[in-house]
């Protein structure tokens, strides 16, 4: 029986992303997998993503190892049909399978048709990626092997050095686990036979081991790939003369943040305006709402978010994107793209770094709805489960850095957006009210904006609108 090998290429996991770090394999060579079964955990620029398989069959080749950075469009996994992966006669010598291949390399052929093979979807879809709808399947040469052994594949030269091992638990066919999970269980003396898997078809995940250990801690990035590599040879820094204590590879979220911030500062001629705001009335209004509904009153950030969306409708220039392209004559073409709607991003600090999830169509939501969505997105972002769409679709960012106890910030705009509003801490300050000195709850609003899309008058008008809304929330909300 001939075996048609299907090569799954790493899909585009987010807008504009070109690579992802392979954190953890969820399957191993020889495992039987289903369509849409998670096969690997990869870390994109902003989130941890479980990649589902578009193919069903037997895992033949894993094209990478944990900690390795893979390029989008390159092979991730090769899958053989169930019938072709295990020979009917045991102990038989492997026999080569004759098969015509349209290109010299199946991997190269698959790469050429990468985008066309992603058009049909199964519902478990990532950006630019869907499972095959029964269309073309790319081929490679495979061998039959004896029963019970891993699939043997005629490897392409690029992958001859791969060394792979099985991770299935004996006697528990559905409990496929990763080496990191097995190590965690072994280090803590946990018997895998006694651990019920919470994943699909009984897959044992990290959280299952953590629950068995008793910690029940939130899932974090695997410790097998340390963020800091300690210097072991006492290198001396030539500039300072000091001994190098450690070296930290820049990758994952930190690498993405560094690239995005560098591009923002190098391309955007930003300007900043700021104003102190008396937030006493807003705090009093929320306190009153909380008395009536202790658990349903929106948070302060939700109210400010509502004022921001209203302000962006009045000053839409700040909800745009500045694009530079090449015109038909080969020259530079620049345009400002306006949007029919607002996706409001908000900065959220997580254990894995700074991320900016966005509330889609925020202009359609009231304060209560905004509050619910902000809380939901904050939770999934801190768990590392936010989708690429949730992390890469904002048109304007709201940054509440006041939670860190600071008043203001010379913020870097979240490229490719054109503006960011920052909110400082709310503290008691002396304030003149009706000609009398009083102690009020005061915060500072800071707006960083791209001077290419608007002038200072527009930026100041937007900032003043939001400030007035905070100082007189009842009037503004009545108008909204």
> What best-fitting shape do the alpha-carbon axes yield?
globular
Distance between the termini: 69 Å
Major β-sheet annotation: 7 strands, mixed
Q: Any idea what the radius of gyration is?
A: 27 Å
Q: How is this structure best described in words?
A:
The protein has helices at about 80-85, 105-110, 180-185, 205-215, 250-265, 280-290, 300-315, 365-380, 390, 455-470, 475-480, and strands at about 5-10, 20-25, 30-35, 40-45, 50, 55-60, 70, 75-80, 170, 170-175, 230, 245, 270-280, 320-325, 330-340, 345, 350, 355, 360, 395-400, 420-425, 425-435, 435-450. The chain has about 475 residues and is of the alpha+beta class. Strands 13, 16, 19, 20, 21, 22 and 23 form a 7-stranded mixed beta sheet that branches. A 4-stranded antiparallel beta sheet has the order 1-8-6-3. The protein has a 4-stranded antiparallel beta sheet with strand order 5-4-2-7, with no helix packed on it. Strand 17 and strand 18 (about 355) form a beta hairpin. Helix 10 crosses helix 11. The longest helix is centred in the middle third of the chain and has 16 residues, at about 250-265. The chain is globular and about 85 Å long. The N and C termini lie far apart (about 70 Å).
Describe this protein with a few key phrases.
480 residues; alpha+beta; seven-stranded mixed sheet; four-stranded antiparallel sheet; 11 helices; 23 strands; 24% strand; globular
Q: Helices and strands in order, then pairings?
A:
Elements: E1 6-9, E2 19-25, E3 32-33, E4 38-43, E5 48-52, E6 57-62, E7 69-71, E8 75-80, H1 82-85, H2 106-112, E9 168-169, E10 172-176, H3 179-187, H4 206-213, E11 229-230, E12 246-247, H5 252-267, E13 270-278, H6 280-292, H7 300-314, E14 320-326, E15 332-338, E16 344-346, E17 348-350, E18 353-355, E19 358-359, H8 367-382, H9 388-391, E20 396-399, E21 419-423, E22 427-433, E23 436-450, H10 456-471, H11 473-479
Parallel strand pairs: 16-20, 20-21
Antiparallel strand pairs: 1-8, 2-4, 2-7, 3-6, 4-5, 6-8, 9-10, 11-12, 13-23, 14-15, 16-19, 17-18, 21-23, 22-23
Helix pairs in contact: 7-8, 7-10, 10-11
């Amino acid at each position: 029986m001939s075996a048609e090998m299907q090569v799954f290429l790493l899909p585009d996991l987010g807008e504009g992303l070109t690579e992802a770090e392979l954190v953890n394999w969820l399957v191993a060579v020889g495992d039987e997998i289903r369509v849409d079964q998670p096969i690997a955990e990869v870390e994109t620029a902003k989130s941890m993503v479980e990649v589902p398989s578009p193919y069903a069959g037997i895992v033949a080749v894993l094209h990478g190892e944990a900690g390795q950075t893979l390029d989008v469009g390159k092979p991730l996994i090769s899958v053989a049909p169930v019938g072709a992966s295990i020979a009917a006669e045991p102990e038989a010598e492997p026999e080569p399978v004759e098969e015509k291949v349209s290109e010299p390399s199946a991997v190269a052929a698959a790469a050429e048709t990468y985008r066309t093979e992603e058009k049909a979807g199964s519902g478990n879809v990532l950006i630019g990626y869907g499972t095959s709808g029964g269309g073309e399947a790319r081929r490679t040469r495979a061998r039959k092997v004896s029963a019970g052994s891993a699939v043997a594949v005629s490897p392409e030269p690029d992958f001859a050095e791969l060394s792979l091992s099985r991770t299935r638990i004996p006697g528990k066919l559905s409990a496929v686990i990763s080496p990191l999970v097995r190590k965690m269980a072994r280090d803590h003396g946990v018997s895998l036979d006694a651990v019920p898997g919470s994943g699909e078809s009984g897959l044992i995940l990290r959280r299952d081991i953590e629950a068995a250990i008793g910690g029940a801690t939130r899932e974090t990035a695997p410790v097998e790939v340390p963020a800091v590599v300690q210097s072991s040879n006492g290198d001396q820094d030539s500039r300072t003369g000091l001994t190098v204590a450690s070296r930290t590879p820049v990758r994952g979220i930190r690498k993405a943040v560094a690239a995005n911030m560098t591009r923002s500062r190098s391309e955007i001629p930003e300007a900043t305006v700021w104003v102190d705001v008396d937030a006493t009335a807003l705090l009093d209004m929320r306190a009153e709402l909380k008395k009536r509904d202790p658990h349903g009153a929106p948070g302060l950030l939700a109210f400010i978010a509502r004022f921001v969306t209203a302000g962006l409708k009045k000053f839409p220039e700040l909800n745009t994107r500045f694009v530079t392209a090449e015109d038909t004559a080969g020259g530079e073409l620049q345009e400002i793209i306006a949007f029919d709607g607002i996706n409001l991003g908000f900065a959220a600090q997580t254990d894995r770094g700074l991320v900016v999830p966005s509330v889609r169509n925020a202009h359609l939501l009231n304060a209560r709805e905004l509050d619910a969505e902000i809380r939901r997105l904050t939770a999934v972002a801190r768990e590392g489960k936010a989708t690429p769409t949730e992390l890469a679709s904002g048109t304007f960012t709201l940054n509440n850095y006041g939670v860190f106890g600071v008043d203001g910030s010379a913020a870097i705009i979240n490229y490719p957006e054109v503006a960011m509003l920052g909110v400082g801490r709310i503290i008691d300050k002396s304030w003149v009210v009706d000609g009398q000195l009083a102690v009020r709850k005061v915060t500072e609003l800071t707006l960083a904006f791209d001077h290419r899309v608007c002038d200072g008058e527009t930026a100041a008008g937007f900032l003043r609108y939001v400030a007035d809304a905070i100082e007189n929330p009842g009037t503004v909300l009545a108008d909204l």
